[in-house]
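Consider the tokenized backbone below.
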């Protein structure tokens, strides 16, 4: 295999590993709880530790397909016969999301993180999807992709969360996108609104069913301010510059997040990958500069300069010049 191809494959593999570690770190319930508290009105002013209890089951990370017909898993015959949705157990509800194709369809697109949340009334559920992006995409508009994702989640509810024409049983959906390396910290809520053009008839329906939240995270760690509570946490977690202990210190002292072994492990592994990516990029940069310099030396030799003249101009030994010329 060509050396440049090997480098590309290694870089892609490390990037993929970094992405998976980032998703795993974001998938911890306490981190998701902080996201919910800062993006969903019903959870505002609540303690994130309390909100953790409303997250049902374990969030699915990179296993639920986005592809048409694969998000909604088919329930087996005899599953909860005669039971209403609110009577079924958490694990049974979450298992309705399709994971059967996660191994045989390696090329398909999957939701980064997806899970159910029980609301404070103990009856209502909402579906949360969290997506992490290293930067704002250039190939497509991020809002367009978010619309596609949220539509897939809504349509996949038929046969799982509601049947036949019982559209009033549809669950509210939030697709939350975290976009790193932006010019400024930002938070946007994109949702449906009714505009009455002629007349004043009020149509029945739930305009709050579709919700897209986009969180822009700038490169700099924001100051410790209330409005930047979520941004500071996410920025610290996903930063490629902060050291492990700095990240853990912010999590523990500022956010009172219990530093259990699994969180410590995920933070450390992500930092190690980030460090490896930076070092490899630095070495590749040095190698690239060396090749440019070697090309310049060869060009000077072809132009008639002697090794001694080149050595004097480049401020290097004659032996090194001859080695570069080959």
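A designed sequence for it:
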């Amino acid at each position: 295999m060509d050396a440049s191809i090997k480098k590309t494959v290694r870089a892609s593999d490390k990037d993929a590993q970094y992405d998976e570690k980032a998703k795993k770190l974001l998938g911890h319930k306490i981190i998701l709880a902080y996201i919910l508290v800062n993006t969903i009105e019903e959870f505002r002013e609540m303690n994130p530790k309390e909100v953790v209890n409303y997250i049902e089951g374990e969030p699915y990370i990179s296993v639920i397909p986005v592809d048409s017909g694969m998000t909604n898993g088919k329930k087996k015959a005899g599953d909860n016969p005669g039971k209403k949705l609110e009577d079924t157990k958490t694990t049974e509800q979450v298992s309705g999301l399709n994971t059967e194709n996660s191994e045989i369809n390696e090329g398909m697109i999957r939701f980064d993180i997806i899970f159910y949340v029980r609301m404070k009334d103990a009856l209502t559920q909402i579906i949360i999807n969290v997506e992490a992006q290293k930067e704002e995409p250039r190939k497509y508009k991020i809002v367009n992709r978010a619309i596609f994702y949220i539509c897939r989640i809504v349509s996949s509810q038929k046969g799982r969360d509601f049947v036949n024409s019982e559209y009033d049983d549809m669950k509210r959906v939030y697709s939350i996108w975290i976009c790193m390396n932006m010019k400024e910290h930002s938070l946007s809520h994109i949702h449906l609104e009714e505009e009455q053009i002629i007349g004043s008839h009020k149509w029945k329906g739930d305009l709050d069913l579709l919700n897209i939240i986009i969180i822009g995270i700038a490169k700099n760690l924001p100051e410790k301010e209330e409005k930047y509570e979520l941004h500071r946490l996410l920025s610290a977690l996903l930063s490629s510059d902060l050291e492990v202990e700095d990240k853990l210190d912010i999590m523990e002292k500022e956010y009172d997040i219990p530093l259990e072994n699994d969180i410590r492990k995920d933070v450390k592994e992500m930092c190690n990958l980030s460090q490896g990516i930076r070092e490899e990029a630095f070495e590749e940069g040095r190698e690239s500069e060396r090749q440019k310099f070697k090309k310049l030396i060869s060009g000077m030799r072809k132009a008639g300069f002697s090794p001694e003249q080149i050595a004097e101009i480049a401020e290097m030994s004659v032996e090194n010049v001859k080695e570069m010329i080959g």
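The beta strands are 55-61, 113-118, 125-133, 172-182, 186-191, 210-218.
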